[in-house]
Amino acid sequence: MNFHKLRLTRRGFLKVTGATAGAISIGSNILDFKQWVEASIQTPIQKIPTICNGCGNRCGINAFVKNGRVWKIEGIPEANGNLGVVCPKGHGYLHDLYSPYRIKGPLKRVGDKFQSISWEQAYQEIAQKINLIILQNGPQSIFWVNYPQSNHLYALRLMHALGSPHYFTHGSTCYTARNAGWVTTVGELPSVDLSNSKYIMIIGRNPAGAIDLGQVKRIIEAKSKGAKLVVVDPRHSETAIIADEWIPIKPGTDLALLLAMINIMVKEELYDKKFVAEKTIGFDQLEEQIFNYPPEWAEKVCEVPSKTIIRITRELAQAKPKALIHRGYHGAFGAQYLNSFQTVRALAIANSLLGNINREGGIYFPKVAKLGELQPNHPAPELPKVGKLDGTGVPGRYPLGSYGDGIAHAIPELALRGELIGGFVYHYNPLRTNPNPKRVIAGYKKLELLVVIDTVLSETASIAHYVLPESFYLERTEAIDTKHSGKRAQVSIQQQVVKPMYNTRPGTQIIIELAKHLGIGKYFNFDIDEANRLRLKPLKVTLEELKEKGVLFVGEEWKEGFDKLETPSGKVEIYSKTLEKLGFPAIPRWEEPLVSPDPKDPHSFRLIHGKQAIHTHSMTANQPILMSISHRYDLIRLWMNKKRGEQLGIRDGDWIKVKSIIGEGKIRVRLTEGIHPSCVWLPSGYGIFSKHLKVAYDIGLSYNDFLPTYFDPTVGHVMASEIIVNITKI
Amino acid sequence: MPRYGMVIDETKCVGCHACRVACHNQNNLEEKEAYNHLEEREYGKFPNFTREFLPVQCQHCDNPPCVKVCPTGASHKRKDGVVLVNKDKCIGCKYCIAACPYNVRIIKKEGYIEKCRFCIEFVEKGEMPACVTTCMTGVRMFGDLDDPESEISKYIIKHRLKQYKAELNTKPRIYYRKG
Q1: What's the pTM?
Q2: FRET pair for A538, CA 20 to 30 Å: which of A3, A411, A654, B103?
Q3: Nearest CB to B134: which of A85, A246, A629?
Q4: ipTM
């Protein structure tokens, strides 16, 4: 079914076996790589479109299968998110399909060891325990946390059917400050129209390292048309390499830079007056307060020369409205500092002053496919009667926190307080990716029931009571996906490319089967194909069409401009009454980071972090091909400013000790001129401590080992760069 | 007959290694094997600083030292410009590895020598090399250097591109654009 029309689009050389339907069965020689290489020369090749699972971008790919074994992947040219290209993680991660570290069947903890059990036994025992916990403690004591997959809707449905509000994403460790800042100011999280922009300023975001393929391709396109790219980052990031200008800022002070830029725009009347008059509220109050922040003040705070700030601001304004300051992700203000929320507010306001909101070449509201509902065919469960206990959306706690995301790193705290008793962790590894691992381990170990759904024995899976093995992404068909938003919306589908090698099951199937054993099967009386058909219905495309192409455009084209935003006033809220009522500054004002390095102590640094192009979170470090690149190019090291290193007698490549108030570790140093002297930079993705993952075990460090458990007062994010470390030569 | 060559735009390389891993899959390489590698260089003092990556692979030289020193004719130059190793003739003496100034040849487990093949089996069927198509910044351009009207030929002339270590008179078929 997938291949009927491939001949029309295939390049001539591939012989497609039209008779094969569905996934390809496993040949007997599948595991012997060398035999397979020999056998596969001149054999027919199948090409099946699907969605990559190597990170959260979910790029559209074609998987090529030779002799029942996945050979390679290529990008789907139309896919909004990756425009035909694939990153190193995507190419490397596909090999995890054949990894000896895969979990081959359901596991139950007995003492210190895991015992193989059947799916039926696992479901029965888990259901019994969950129902007992609910009986004794109420349904709100059960949680589900995941790094969202396309099937998160079904996980949410499962929790609601049980009566629990406790569905969490990883958001509080990643992006919740960014989202809240944008939502407060313009009503939703926008995108960036990079390819049509004439002037692109990026603060902290690093799409060429923490890879966003579509964004990088669009930046290159803009640059080929003459756009200027300015990158503000304490480290000379991978995006800085392709920038026209790198502005190394003192970390934690981006807010000062933005306030000064707004100051200049107001003082020199560089802003879009028509847009400000018609589409914003609170400009007068901004005008009154912003005079506190001239560029000369900002220079002292953020260590960017005032004349640079003035020049960049004038250049941006000259290019407006086809000019933008990138909306950001994790880096700089996603969940980094005490002042991150106000930084995003200032950033959104600076963009608004450029009049670029929902304009070509500026900030825009992408088209997202609006999928159909499962109801009325499959009625939804009632909403839980109690709210989340983590304080998201509660005045006095984390009032601007995203209720949908919850605060994932509050789970260990709620467990230690006895408020969460049992839960599911799916496609997520909080023991490694949440701050303060000792505390996280203590919290998760306190649970009476921990069920982990994963493909390998991660740190979190290692301490679970039950481990349910999910099929690898190339082995399973999943819920249709709307991740590929853009100037025109797309739907996409992750579909089975090869049959499962082991006794594993797709995530959605596991959710449905769990529900049936838990006695809430009436809400899950469907399979993934039926659910996909129902959800596709309003889009006027069939499941068969989608499976054939992998990615399809749907709906209307994006149009410039807007009548009314999703904010309370319907306008850009430069002044926010919502914030005023909650007791937060209604107009952005300077806030110090929570902690700062001691300028008099040569051993004192701020610890910042970021992604490398070859690793995703904690999930690729055990991939031998990707890890061999880390070793070959010495990428596991900590970046330190050369002069600062020399002051401490540290040479390039030396081992050092890093110590914060909660942890310490040893690592080698990369001495470089490409980083601000006040900080050191640690690549994320290393520091694996699951003994089951032998390729990655005990190699490198994770910033989470040094980060105390913090909850910022606006959204409850982790404040991931509020870390001061003491560094000494070993 | 086309005579193939490549342009590598160093100013666009961000060092992500997608080319290496795409090549790995395309050519069914073993875990630590690679046909291309990156040389990273730093310039300047903080805050006036930049760095760049130099992607290096077999340069498919027109005056290939590897071919000259090969005692069996395993390393050979084809009419389409591509330098290949015939694994059946290769005795694994490693003379070519010593002679190649670009350090891009590897020893396969079976004992013969291999290196970038310009994905020639795929190029002959109308595709582009894997390192070209996977790159998010479009570092590489591939085409017929003998055709004066080809995009690549025009690009080389327009930007006056030069080869890597051209002074060694190896006459490489890869041209580099520098910052």
Answers
A1: 0.95
A2: A3
A3: A85
A4: 0.97
